[in-house]
Amino acid sequence: MSINKALSFDLFSDIIFSKRLKEKTINLIRSLWNPAVTNSLNEAHFESRLIPLNKKHPDVPKAEEFRPIVVMSPLVKLLEARLLEKLQWYTSTKLQRSQTGFVPGMDIFVNIHRALDQIRLRINDKKKVFCLFLDFKSAYNTVPHDELFQKLNSICSEEEVQLLRAIYSRMIIKLGSEKLRCNVGVAQGSMISPALFDLYAEDLITELIQNGWNIFDILAYADDHLILCDSIEELEKAISTVKSWCQKANILLNPTKSGILEVVPRRGKISLDVGTKISDIPVVQSYRYLGLLLDGKLTGDLHIQQMNKKIYFLNEKLAPLLTKVSLDYRINLWKALVRPLYNSSIAIMYHNNLTRINKLESNMRMSFKRFVGLSITTSNSVLNCLIDFNIKKLADDQHQKANNKWQRRLALKPILKDKVLEKIRTPILPKLFIKYNNIQKSKCPVCRDYSINDANHLKTMHNIQVPSTLELLNNLCKNFPRVPSKGFSRSLILLQEQKYIQRYLNLIIKHTLNKI
After folding, report:
1. What average pLDDT score do residues 85-107 get?
2. Which value, to the nearest 10 degrees, does the dihedral of the CA atoms of residues 197, 200, 202, 206 take?
3. Residue range 250-267, pLDDT digits in tens
């Protein structure tokens, strides 16, 4: 857990999370997770401090334009931590693959590159794409507790679910002399709230897949959703599906803050006029998704303009400080405050031409010179000794890292106990699954960008059913030593000799590729 957070009303310090107090904290957790101790805790520990932030600063906001920040007691976070491991396991291994928000090992650039890759794939094929961006109004604050706890029953034990029920029933949000006890929503500032929302909103992705979308065209990061559509009819169907789910799930869709962005290939004609609406959702010229401002041509120009304004603002505010500190200090400040602003711009440059890449490199060098106080005539060779300004290399590295994370997200790795592994005959294992897995890693001859086994690629994209390596392994574990009377597992177990098994698996792939 992170430390140096704001204090709640019980003044319980988060210093207990520091390494030097690790043993004492472990003993405290053991006693806290005892239901008798939990029920005897003072009510002050469950009072959360509400800090309303003005989202419209410097303007005067309306009531709905505040961003509520809730400061919880570290003691409550310790209580919730009992569910953390199981929720992280579920989001990593069981949650719909399209959802990457707050999933261990994922970040926003996974979805940013996924979106850009899928859009570019269509544009390069001379096809237009309609991007449906969804904005849910106070999504975290409107999750119904009863439905959430019902979903949790399949992941956590009954005692763990009852623990969370007890925490939520006693939790009070306080601002000045006013108090509020909530019966909906997940707790702000909680370690497990993002996972709880992912779990609750998973049904939306499931419904979209059932209605014809594949996991590559649904891009979810917590409550930020992007759905890619190939036609206006498909777009209307997506909006209808989303609204239907919102009504059932008690989640409010904010149509005015949602948006439809039409991206067309070069010299392509736009079908939708900016400003018009489809099912109350406006057609927009640009939309900010996970910090990246996307436009209809994917040039990145609008995003860079907005970024330059932020850099100018930082230069102006920090100017009095920068004249009084050393060069090394100014360089470190630029790395900490300005350099991260370029990450989203670098992402969109992966698919852009060399002219735009050179333009962004020049922009970055100029911002560095101005911030650090170097002469405008300082040579690029000197700057390159201080900072890596190679945008092409940075974009390639960023894309590679994002793609590797996405491939790991798609890979269904079996979690097997030792007792289960003992049931499998060791002579069968080596060449059976290694051979089959290696064959599956070959590229799909139609799509080329995806391996055959990428999230059941053949099933989702080509409607061809083929067993994955994990399915083969699970079937063997489940049915061995009993030989089933029929089915795929029986065929595998009866073919004991490795050479016949390998030949059998080769035939499966060959037959599949012929179908494509």
Report:
1. 89
2. -160
3. 899 999 999 999 999 888
